[in-house]
Specification:
The complex is a heterodimer of chains A (112) and B (114).
Chain A lengths: L3 E4 L2 E5 L4 E7 L7 E6 L6 E6 L5 E4 L2 E6 L4 E6 L8 E7 L8 E2 L3 E6 L1
Parallel strand pairs in A: 2-11
Antiparallel strand pairs in A: 1-3, 3-8, 4-5, 4-9, 6-7, 7-8, 9-10, 9-11
Chain B lengths: L4 E3 L2 E4 L5 E6 L6 E7 L6 E7 L2 E5 L7 E4 L6 E5 L8 E8 L8 E2 L3 E5 L1
Parallel strand pairs in B: 2-11
Antiparallel strand pairs in B: 1-3, 3-8, 4-5, 4-9, 5-6, 7-8, 9-10, 9-11
The chains are: A mainly beta (112), B mainly beta (114).
Chain lengths: 112, 114
């Protein structure tokens, strides 16, 4: 059973557009929700993270929205650029230093 | 320190052979994690060390898998009697130090079992 669900599986966005990736979870013990970015041949890299006591967090062009009651969270990438083309994983863990449970990933392609 | 390093980057082995991978974490990090990633999927947790103590093992880690972190620094992951289903990317991550929560991932070791 997948503990963290993610959609869409793939996404094509034009340069300058907004990329939106949605995730959902079931385990109410999760208390830390990071997003990772992975380029081919590389390990995942932390992009931005949020805790459930915050409804929104913004870092540059990246924004996480969090809905605790619905157990859903999403990543918005504003002004998407070709360099943003990568696979994005939402994830969750019970504490900030615990094992991370990853979603299945979204392959993002930003076309010029 | 340039980050988490893993060796080898690629390994091709025949079914039934044993393989060992090494992970060198960021030097001040006391926590070390192993994950496995198959094509098109997110990484799956295998095991976790705090210093030299192995604190948690996933049910994915069958008896053929063993991990060690003998001096609380580098770690090894050994797979005995490899099977074709073991083909995957094996990722190591470490955390600790001043920014205690972020897990920094290495580039991974890609294992192909023929």
């Amino acid at each position: 059973q997948q503990q963290v669900k993610q959609s869409p599986q793939s996404l094509i966005v034009q340069k300058g557009g907004i990329s939106i990736i949605n995730c959902a979870y079931e385990n109410t013990a999760f208390d830390y929700f990071p997003w990772y970015q992975q380029f081919p041949g590389k390990g995942p890299a932390l992009l931005i993270a949020i805790r459930p006591d915050v409804s929104e967090k913004k870092e540059g062009r990246f924004t996480i929205s969090f809905n605790k009651s619905a157990k859903q969270f999403s990543l918005h990438i504003m002004d998407s650029q070709p360099g943003d083309s990568a696979t994005y994983f939402c994830a969750a863990s019970e504490t900030s230093y615990d094992k991370v449970i990853f979603g299945p990933g979204t392959s993002l392609s930003v076309i010029p | 320190d340039t980050g988490v390093s893993q060796d080898p980057r690629h390994k091709i082995t025949k079914r039934g052979q044993n393989v060992t991978f090494r992970c060198d974490p960021i030097s001040e990090h006391n926590r070390l994690y192993w994950y496995r990633q198959t094509l098109g999927q997110g990484p799956e947790f295998l095991t976790y060390f705090q210093n030299e103590a192995q604190l948690e093992k996933s049910r994915l880690l069958s008896d053929r898998f063993s991990a060690e972190r003998p001096k609380g620094s580098f770690s090894t992951l050994e797979i005995q009697r490899t099977e074709q289903g073991d083909s995957a990317m094996y990722l190591c991550a470490s955390s600790g130090g001043q920014v205690s929560y972020e897990q920094y991932f290495g580039p991974g070791t890609r294992l192909t079992v023929t």
